[in-house]
Amino acid sequence: MGAYILRRLLLMVPTLLGIMAMSFIVIQFAPGGPVEQVIATLQGQAGDRLSGGGGGETQFQASTESTGYRGAQGLDPAFIAKLEQQFGFDKPPLERFGLMIWNFARFDFGESYFRSVSVIDLIKEKMPVSISLGLWITLISYGISIPLGIRKALKDGSTFDIWTSGVVIVAYAIPGFLFAVLLIVLFAGGSFLDWFPLRGLVSDNWQQMSWPDRIIDYFWHLTLPLIALSLSAFATTTLLTKNSFLDEIRKQYVTTARAKGLTERRVLYGHVFRNAMLIIVAGFPGAFISAFFTGSLLIETIFSLDGLGLLGFESVYRRDYPVVFATLYIFSLIGLLATLLSDLCYTWIDPRIDFERREV
Transmembrane region positions (predicted)? Predict the structure, then answer.
């Protein structure tokens, strides 16, 4: 097992390099980089002044020809060169990529271009929102899916199984962001009730509250976002649990256990449960990471929750490349480690599985 883990860890290196290289290449062809962002801002502020005067046209032509930026109208070429040096664009692309990889290997992500704060501090600041959403939605999803999937397997083909399948499929088909808007209209000061807050993870006076009031306030703010996220989160796991239990119930060892006089509960939870839950439990790390990083952008925006999803979107929009590449690197690394952990969970749950002895 040690050799298998070592091989997987070593394979993560070229995988990460490939992810970062492809992203870096795409970024090179994307218009509107940070230098252009600053130029556009300056031109917007000084547009009126540059539009007048006879010498403006000559200065515009000289600036455009010397810098290569179509938006650098009337700006000093030396200023443009200084901007490029500030953002690191005075170096060739290959050198910039090599320097970025070297810094990332030491977990040195630099500072945000436009926020004047280190990327690590920025991620730490946004982390509580994403952790809250990812952790609770995973627990809620598994807490609903596993009992419901077991019940559906035991009642396969019954009225309960049919109507719950219909509910699960309909819930899965409804977009989470659309349901979030409906919740706001109904319960967050829209056209009807004003029961829940619409902004933030906690109230402004949260630090002055007692611990019981802090806990209540925290879940009070999370109620609507979690309902919107969990609407479709449990559909896949529910059906997977049901099918896994059905496959195990139909096997010969279950018939043998029943023939020995074991109670149905003992057969179900003493024999079937462990084998049926193998794929469900082993997939928990991946499910948590997926919910932690991918499912909250629109929900964070709708409910004004300043988390990693919103941070990533704003960084791409503003071309804040240190934040973009740092979050991509961290998310990719954690995703690869979660995949390895999921594979190891198989061997911990069922010792009969051994990746070292599998045939290649």
Answer: 9-30, 131-150, 162-188, 218-241, 276-303, 323-349
